[in-house]
Amino acid sequence: MRQELRDLLDLLNLEQIEFNLFRGVSPSEGWQRVYGGQVLGQALMAASRTVADPTRTAHSLHGYFLRPGDTTIPIVYSVDRIRDGKSFTTRRVVALQKGQAIFNMAVSFQVAEVGLEHQFDMPAVKSPEDCQSFAELRARYAADIPEDYKASATRPQPIDMRFAEPFNEFKPEKMDPYQHCWIKTVDEMPADVRLNQCLLAYASDMTLIDTAARPHGVAWTDQHFQVASLDHAMWFHRPFRTDAWLLYAQDSPFAGGGRGLSRGSFYTQAGQLIASVAQEGLMRLHEP
């Protein structure tokens, strides 16, 4: 397994320090605050570790980001085992640093059932083989990367991302509030359904808020642009693997009041809808 993917799986592999307490760490990559997807993935892992029945997998999560996370100290995840029912299991997770909550999340797990089915069709976009990768785009626009971000922007990533609508993220033009991105891990993943869910939760925060910024032509590296995830909701519809291409179709129906709303849908290459996402993010453009 490639080292960058192994490092990500190690990041999600929490240490259990008490019956309902787990400890996670953050990578030393020079970021000012903890990446939101990391907290999502780790919190989901903590909740999953308290569900003994392996046939029960997460079907939904709803979380709120409360304070910026400090990358230099561990995060403690406290799990409340709210309910274990016949079909559903409910957990509440609070992420703590220095005695304060930085994130909280409710997660619901369900036994596998058969029922009525329908879904929206997958959008018609270019195949991943015909799209430029994130690494190729960043190499193409290397001269525009701010010096403070060059080390992290050029580091090998555990998730391959390919954009159907390529753009320069460091000097963006105004674009429609839609985005289509293919993703998959750079190496083979274990078959564990819960681990793949945690990894997809991690990946779901990578580009979602950017979709709300596209109509405004502002870069996330702009020192006058304050951007952060406020909440995150996710629904898992079917089992999936993250080492096969998944299309992340995103749109932003609204921005205003210092906030932007984004939605996303994950599809397999065969067109199966496997997960849905919604997020509101803080978006403030301060005066120079």
Structure description:
By secondary structure, this protein is of the alpha+beta class. It has a single domain, classed as Porin (Beta Barrel), CATH 2.40.160.210. It has six helices and 13 strands. A 13-stranded antiparallel sheet has the order 1-2-4-5-6-3-10-13-12-11-9-8-7. The radius of gyration is 18 Å and the shape is globular.
Core attributes:
single chain, 288 residues, alpha+beta, 13-stranded antiparallel beta sheet, 6 helices, 18% helix
How does the SSE layout of this entry go?
Elements: H1 3-12, E1 15-18, E2 21-24, H2 36-49, E3 56-65, E4 75-84, E5 88-97, E6 100-111, E7 132-133, H3 134-140, H4 150-153, E8 159-163, E9 178-185, H5 193-204, H6 208-213, E10 225-236, E11 246-256, E12 259-268, E13 273-285
Antiparallel strand pairs: 1-2, 2-4, 3-6, 3-10, 4-5, 5-6, 7-8, 8-9, 9-11, 10-13, 11-12, 12-13
Helix pairs in contact: 2-5
The CATH architecture term is: Beta Barrel
Q: How far is the N terminus from the C terminus? A: 46 Å
Order of strands across the biggest sheet? 1-2-4-5-6-3-10-13-12-11-9-8-7
**Which structural class do the helices and strands define?**
alpha+beta
Q: Count structural domains.
A: 1
- CATH class, named Mainly Beta
What level of helicity do the residues show? 10-25%
Brief synopsis:
With 288 residues, the chain is α+β, with helices and mostly antiparallel strands. The protein has a single domain, classed as Acyl-CoA thioesterase, double hotdog domain (Porin, Beta Barrel). It has helices at 3-12, 36-49, 134-140, 150-153, 193-204, 208-213, and strands at 15-18, 21-24, 56-65, 75-84, 88-97, 100-111, 132-133, 159-163, 178-185, 225-236, 246-256, 259-268, 273-285.
